[in-house]
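Question (not urgent): is this output format expected?
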Amino acid sequence: MLYTRKGDSGTTKTFDSKPGERISKSSCRTESLGVLDELNSFLGLVKVKAAANSWKVNDKTPEEIIAWSQNNLFIVQAEVAGSDKKIDSESIKEMENWIDSVEKELPPIKTFFISGGTELAALFDVSRTLARKAERRVIKALEEDSIVVGPETLAFLNRLSSLFYALARLSNHKSGIKEVPPSY
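Got this back:
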């Protein structure tokens, strides 16, 4: 059944809820879960659009990197919801390897760039901002003691936006589109 009516009063439960315990849908914890879900759902669209690209990063297509990111975001969501699932340090190293490989292909960053270029680059830029938003919400919930997450989770969320930024830049680069700095 897709509905239970239990949340009609504005509450929900998490993996670690005690019997009968419910939390507000407006809590920092629930907001964190919602923003993580928003990012993961948006990545579904990015993955569909990325399927048309043939370039790779360390033998992984953009589509495969996005699917990997989505699976790891489910681990983060589970951890925020109170399960015993955790991001491991190997996942962070894998992401750093992708970012490092992309950076080797691109000119160094000397300024901010205006989002756009290819459709995929623009979608990666939106993903980057959603990842930063999710990171802020998780940190807020952590600071308010409404969740417990490991340091690997915080590192993962911090690196995720860097990964999407690198992929946005690479998408434009592979298409021969020059990055445009703001004209302040």
